[in-house]
Write a structure and sequence with these properties.
The chain has 236 residues and is an alpha+beta fold. The chain folds into 2 domains: 94 residues, no CATH class; 93 residues. Strands 1-2-3 form a 3-stranded antiparallel β-sheet. A two-stranded antiparallel sheet has the order 4-5. Strand 4 and strand 5 form a beta hairpin. The protein is globular.
Length: 236
């Protein structure tokens, strides 16, 4: 056991020495609206890359692509740069904390920690998995196996959507917006090739999972509450 600990320690020391950790910011020109673009972040660690939204927008002409910051000394530029400095400081802290705890750290792990993905039920797929597990335990009592299988397929469609459109393995409840379910609906009808009834059913399960998490205090808001047409139901 002692030799194993020494080996792990040496391996980790070598990994840290070789580690390349970078945080940079950029704007997503493809999302430009009336000259305004969203500011994005990118974490790179030893070739692994993860991207995230900074929850900031800026006039395209104010962005310094080389400096990865807003140009000038206007109030808007100062506020955005201050927010980006704060984000970078948080990410560095998460990276250092994970490096102290884990043998190997990836960019996705750091981004997940920054976005609050480390706590049970704060992630969308994590919430779905736990709800499905509870449903499974009631099969033969007051739930049908067929309904459980439908829920599993729905969860898998959602996971595929997140991987394709967000290039991540999961997403924080805090990141969800009304547009998320609209984009998911489009994905289901195009990429997944589902018919209208199946699209509705999958969106219904998604909305139900988020509504339950909100009701149980596991997310501060329900971003889908303002949408009509996807009312959750407890199908048996």
């Amino acid at each position: 056991m002692y030799n194993s600990l020494i080996t792990n320690f040496v391996s980790k020391e070598k990994w840290i020495m070789r580690s390349t950790f970078k945080v940079l910011f950029y704007v997503n020109g493809s999302k430009e609206k009336n000259g305004i673009v969203p500011v994005m972040g990118r974490v790179t660690i030893n070739g692994s890359v993860a991207q995230f939204s900074c929850k900031q927008t800026i006039a395209k002409e104010l962005w310094d692509a080389k400096g990865n910051r807003a140009k000038g000394k206007s109030r808007e530029a100062r506020d955005i740069n201050l927010a980006l400095d704060n984000i970078k400081a948080q990410i560095i802290r998460h990276y250092q904390r994970l490096s102290d705890r884990e043998a190997f750290v990836t960019a996705e792990m750091v981004c997940n920690a920054f976005q609050g993905l480390g706590t049970e039920y704060e992630t969308l797929l994590g919430a779905f998995d736990k709800d499905n597990e509870s449903f499974k335990k009631r099969i033969g009592i007051d739930r049908a196996k067929g309904s459980y299988q439908v829920r599993v397929r729905s969860r898998n469609h959602l996971a595929a959507f997140i991987r394709k459109c967000y290039r991540r393995s999961d997403i924080s409840m805090l990141e969800l917006t009304p547009d998320f379910i609209k984009e998911y609906e489009i994905y289901l009808s195009t990429d997944a090739g589902l018919h209208n009834a199946s699209v509705w059913s999958n969106c219904m399960w998604l909305k139900t999972i988020v509504a339950k998490a909100h009701y149980n205090g596991l997310t501060p808001r329900n971003p889908f509450a303002v949408l009509r047409g996807y009312k959750g139901a407890d199908h048996r």
